């Protein structure tokens, strides 16, 4: 590599992520023994970006955000055994390390996989974080298999996680999938992503019980605040809920009468703590790539912004934060 510096987008202390992002120049990171150095070609925007930015203080160094990427391996650490220079890869990164809003990024090989060969970098960048979240929710938290049956309710079906979760559930389990959406556009998207039925989240209890009069077995929740009473009414006794949000003061006592189990899912847990099974993220991304390449799964990208700069990422974050985006928004070079 002929230069020791790279361009990146730094996040600074500010009231919003749009005001926070600026173009910066920093040193290219050196790979650790199990790292690959990736030339980042495309990223997608996630709420995780905003949560990290909100914690930046005025005396902090700029933080490189970004927890979804697709790119090309430029170098490998001394102990890397699963990837090679030149591999086209995808991954979702690690909250403890600099992110993908940069020209280059170092990532532990155990959470990186070859991307689907049938997808462009932009199409691939839409999927890793949401796929890992959905996969771990379905198969680690809920413990599902191909033989599993019953009803799964996916709240926020037209969002990034919901869009891939419904596809995975239909492809790899025997579940009936119910999604929540309200607008005609998002309802149509949910059906296209695999929902067998779609209910309006504004009438969650009423419409869900019309579709599943005895209640649902499983519920995925990205928006838990204010919904626990409805969840208690629509989840069967001994059912399971997996949540990915953390609203302050969340009270789960209403779930006790039915012995409903509550699970947390954070796809960063494995890399943050370098768990013994950390390589499961590489394996599930590789399995997903195979499902994409054989036509079972489709990308969830709905908009691509061809401006890998602070301006382009400000635009992408602004659109996602507005709360009306369907699928994923990607920024590419």
Question: How would you describe this protein?
Answer:
With 333 residues, the protein is an alpha/beta fold. The chain has two domains: 190 residues, Alpha-Beta Complex (Quinone Oxidoreductase, Chain A, domain 1), CATH 3.90.180.10; 120 residues, NAD(P)-binding Rossmann-like Domain (Rossmann fold, 3-Layer(aba) Sandwich), CATH 3.40.50.720. Strands 3, 5, 6, 7, 8, 15 and 16 form a seven-stranded mixed sheet that branches. Helix 4 packs across helix 10. The longest helix is centred in the middle third of the chain and has 14 residues. Belongs to the zinc-containing alcohol dehydrogenase family. Quinone oxidoreductase subfamily. It comes from Mycolicibacterium iranicum (Mycobacterium iranicum). This is Zinc-type alcohol dehydrogenase-like protein.
Low-confidence stretches: none
Shape: globular
Number of separate helices: 11
> What integer value in Å does the Rg equal?
20 Å
- Strand and helix order: EHEEHEEEEEHHEHEHEHEHEEHHEHE
In terms of DSSP E residues, the strand content is 25-35%
